[in-house]
């Protein structure tokens, strides 16, 4: 039996369906289905079912893991306050931001802004605890905050990697491939932003192709550019062409991921992008990027206190620009290899730090972004998947609402991996079941099954089993649970090899979601006009 | 640079030290060290330090994850009670056990034993919440129960696998290799039991070689045989030769892992072994082995209720044999691939189930055994490590005290993997840091570092960094965090390849712990005499 045929058969025989244009995606969870298991599956096979069956996002039904006590959290907050009161933050090359903070009561000394204890948190209090980000397909709009969880792919890698081609600079084609793969999977709810850097497109024009690709090759919610305030404005303008200016003014339709220049600096590129998104009532994701020992202390408590201070200052700035505009409290903690000084990921210290950050975000009443499947490995090997699982589970347990870098991450974020992306999706799928929690409904206890089967007999044929087996267990796409002999005879394939095949199959069967011709033309015209208005820049 | 030299240099330059006979093992955690970081490291290099620096076990300082409410847990318990009251358990070919239960007030009908609600839990109440298992080296004795966590290697695989030799039947040499590897790592605290099946030794004599190997090639605590009551008795008798009969009568020095014949059957082999351990005041580990849909319901709530019922009956039997004897509440949940009916591991349903089992064990006041690094993969690839990390993290979060199968598991337990073993150890090491939790002590907040460095500068040279960097981060042995170029130039090695090298290096440098000559002679004599007393059996 040819390996390709085996996998294709497995996929067709299982219930791991990829999204086709406008078609259904039955999942291995009856609670997500609009119809019964078998009928929904048949509907997907035959092309019936115009609505997606996959959830637009996850409603988590398990409690977040509360690592620290109230006293411990208050101590972290007090240390964040102390940093802001004693050392302060620098806001460079942005007199408008300095004026906003000064008018709000902060102490501005040159480019340094200092805050009284509790002041920044108070400034953040106007941000909503939860908001909706509209998607082009209304059925895929996502709820950000509260008990909701949204997965998005990795962001920002200049390189891509696959088994066939190795590591190379990413191109616009790669970017579009990942938008398509993200669209096709039921396990990612959001198209992300710079899923990889299309380095074959001029730096000052990339954002136009990226935003267009998100809007044309997917209908999931997405993120725009932040690398220059004008690029942020372009991104939002393109969203207006799709959603309408009034809708955009009243609703979040685009996010922008802005990074603090840690330690304790906001630069004008990032505050410019942040202010642009906030002014348009769109959501900045405010993320300090702290590698312990470099951009912050080597000790986790210090790094978390710093991150809390830096994040709140960014969110406060957005609220001063437009009170009540949506914002996301971001988190990106890493550690360092003592031997080399290089950053490490999926290690226990950031996992613990994320659990505390989750508690801090809840106390601040802000939606939380956390990172997903981190690793420093260059390939999707055992190291990569151990680190990614540790990192992802910490994000799930800490109560994160928006998990960026949920799939694809390799090499500390420098590389977006095709096979890694598919492998991470299996864990994203598992998270759907995990976050649903432990079902205590009466039929789950199978008392009729025990009465029917009794001691010493197998449950294979029990009525209870027949009633439940189709929906009982999450079915990963890539895991091989066949016997050793079956696996050997099928070529002793490892999971990255199976993933490579799946990448090809999903891209081959990809169908773009429908888009209104007039809107598409308007987008294309906007892109062409903006590109023609400026010379190429390559730096 | 030769890859071998690279890794050896990395290991020597780092702080990942393997145990040599009687020598120290400084760890990347100042809280475990008896001396300072640098002095302990120098001591290890020069061979000073007669006591192990690695912890004999972990004292967990993070709370268990409480998934269900009190009401939910009471519902699970009520369903377990209902199974025992309505369906009951069969205890086959063991009239003594039936009599013990009848005398204790259970209803015995043929081989079926039924219990009033709450009765079995009451019978278990004499078992200790926590006990010490003595090791041959007193510094390595382990605390079982409470907030303590003990890691042991995988148990019971008939096959082994390494990159060089592929998959093959395990031999006594393999068994001894894994005892040595377990002894040498600071991250496993317990030598385990049947770490693999030495199938080159007759079935009725294997236990003698296995117990001798644990006692001779390690000085960590261990488990004895359970495959026949006489083999359990032999195991305990050998422990008496080492520890002394009086010590054995008063202390746990050996465990026996007994499995329920799920669903709802105890057979005489297992009750025989269980009674033998309990009568000798040694600890049975009582483990239902439930693959959902086969040995129990496909629904997790039903499987957990069944497991709770089965486990408590086993522990109650031990308490009836010898009230107050130690026992461990065991847990082994799995799921099933819908496509093939084969068991799957590291999936979300058993992960959730384990969290609930942890709560049930705490309510029952019993030490909990949970499974560790599970997978159905045949090789230590990405699938294997994703599943293993999910499974292990569930064990850590559920509050397990004794984690069996913490390292080596492949192929649903059929294969013990050499490289997988080393890769799992990295996660066991990470667990040491994770379970220590978030350090809130004042210096961790680095306020002097912020004052010194201020905004926009790197923390590399901060006094705070210099004071903490040596102990700030856990350092896995196998993870590669070097740059892409360094990794490429070193041969593009994956983590399983690096693990293979480490296996060879650790075995090459292995030194057996000292043992008293008279005790060693007595053990050898016992083994020879018992072997001579019976013909070989191969089934």
Would you kindly provide a written description of the structure presented here, covering whatever features stand out?
- Two copies of one chain form a homodimer.
- Chain A is α/β, with parallel strands linked by helices.
- Helix content of chain A is 45%, strand content 12%.
- The first copy, chain A, has helices at 3-13, 37-46, 70-87, 95-103, 119-123, 172-184, 206-217, 229-243, 245-250, 268-279, 300-321, 348-364, 382-398, 418-436, 447-453, 463-472, 484-489, 495-509, 517-532, and strands at residues 58-59, 89-91, 107-109, 112-114, 130-133, 142-145, 148-151, 159-162, 166-169, 255-260, 265-266, 283-288, 290-291, 328-329, 333-336, 343-344, 369-371, 402-404, 409-410, 415-417.
- In chain A, the strands form six sheets. A four-stranded mixed sheet of chain A has the order 1-7-18-17, with helices on one face.
- In chain A, strand 3 and strand 4 form a beta hairpin.
- In chain A, helix 3 (70-87) crosses helix 11 (300-321), helix 11 runs parallel beside helix 12 and helix 12 packs parallel to helix 13.
- Chain A is globular and about 80 Å long.
- Chain A starts with a helix and ends in a 7-residue tail after the last helix.
- Chains A and B meet through helix 3, helix 11, strand 16, helix 12 and helix 13 of A and helix 3, helix 11, strand 16, helix 12 and helix 13 of B.
State the separation between the terminal residues of chain A, measured CA to CA: 51 Å
SSE class of chain A: alpha/beta
- Give the low-pLDDT segments of chain A: 1-17, 20-52
Shape of chain A from CA axes?
A: globular
- State mean pLDDT of chain A (0 to 100 scale): 91
Number of helices of chain A: 19
Q: Biggest chain pair contact, residues each?
A: A-B, 133 and 133 residues
- Binned strand content of chain A: 5-15%
Give the proportion of residues in helices of chain A: 40-55%
Describe the largest sheet of chain A.
4 strands, mixed
Oligomer: homodimer
Strand sequence of the main sheet of chain A, in spatial order? 1-7-18-17
- Total E-strand runs of chain A: 20
Compute the CA-based radius of gyration of chain A. 24 Å
């Amino acid at each position: 039996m040819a390996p390709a045929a085996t996998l294709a058969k497995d996929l067709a025989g299982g219930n791991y369906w990829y999204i086709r244009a406008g078609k259904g995606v039955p999942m291995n969870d009856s609670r997500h289905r609009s119809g019964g298991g078998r009928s929904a599956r048949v509907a997907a096979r035959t092309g019936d079912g115009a609505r997606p069956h996959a959830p637009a996002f996850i409603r988590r039904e398990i409690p977040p893991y509360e690592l620290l006590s109230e006293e411990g959290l208050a101590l972290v907050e007090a240390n964040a306050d102390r940093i802001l009161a004693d050392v302060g933050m620098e806001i460079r090359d942005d007199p408008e931001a300095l004026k906003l903070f000064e008018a709000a009561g902060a102490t501005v000394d040159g480019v340094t802004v200092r805050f009284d204890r509790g002041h920044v948190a108070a400034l953040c209090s106007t941000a909503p605890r939860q908001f909706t980000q509209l998607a082009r397909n209304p059925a895929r709009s996502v709820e950000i905050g509260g008990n909701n969880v949204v997965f998005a792919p990795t962001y920002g890698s200049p390189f891509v990697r696959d088994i066939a081609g190795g590591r190379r600079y990413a191109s616009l084609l790669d970017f579009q491939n990942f938008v398509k793969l993200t669209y096709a999977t039921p396990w990612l709810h959001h198209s992300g932003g710079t899923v990889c850097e299309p380095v074959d497109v001029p730096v000052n024009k990339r954002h136009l192709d990226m935003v267009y690709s998100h809007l044309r090759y997917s209908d999931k919610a997405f993120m725009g550019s932040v690398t220059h305030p004008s690029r942020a404005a372009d991104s939002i303008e393109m969203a207006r062409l799709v959603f309408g200016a009034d809708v955009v003014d009243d609703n979040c339709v685009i996010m922008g991921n802005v990074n603090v220049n840690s330690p304790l600096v906001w630069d004008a590129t990032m505050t410019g992008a942040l202010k642009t998104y906030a002014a348009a009532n769109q959501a900045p994701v405010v993320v300090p990027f702290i590698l312990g020992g470099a951009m912050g202390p080597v000790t986790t408590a210090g790094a978390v206190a710093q991150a809390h201070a830096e994040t709140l200052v960014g969110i406060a700035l957005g609220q001063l620009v437009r009170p009540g505009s949506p914002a996301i409290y971001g988190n990106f903690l890493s550690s360092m290899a003592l031997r080399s000084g290089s950053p490490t990921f999926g290690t226990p210290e950031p996992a613990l730090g994320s659990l505390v950050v989750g508690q801090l975000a809840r106390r601040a009443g802000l939606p939380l972004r956390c990172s997903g499947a981190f690793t420093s490995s260059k390939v999707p090997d055992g190291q990569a998947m151990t680190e990614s699982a540790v990192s992802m589970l910490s994000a799930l347990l800490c109560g994160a609402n928006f998990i960026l870098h949920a799939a694809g991450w390799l090499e500390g974020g420098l590389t977006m991996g095709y096979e890694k992306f598919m492998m991470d999706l299996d864990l994203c799928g598992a998270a759907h079941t995990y976050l649903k929690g432990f079902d205590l409904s009466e039929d789950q206890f199978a008392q009729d099954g025990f009465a029917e089967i009794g001691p010493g007999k197998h449950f294979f044929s029990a009525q209870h089993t027949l009633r439940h087996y189709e929906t009982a267990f999450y079915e990963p796409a890539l895991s091989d649970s066949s016997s050793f002999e079956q696996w050997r005879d099928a070529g002793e394939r490892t999971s990255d090899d199976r993933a490579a095949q799946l990448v090809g199959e999903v891209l081959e069967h990809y169908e773009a979601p429908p888009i209104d011709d007039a809107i598409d033309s308007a987008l294309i015209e906007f892109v062409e006009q903006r590109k023609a208005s400026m010379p190429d820049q390559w730096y």
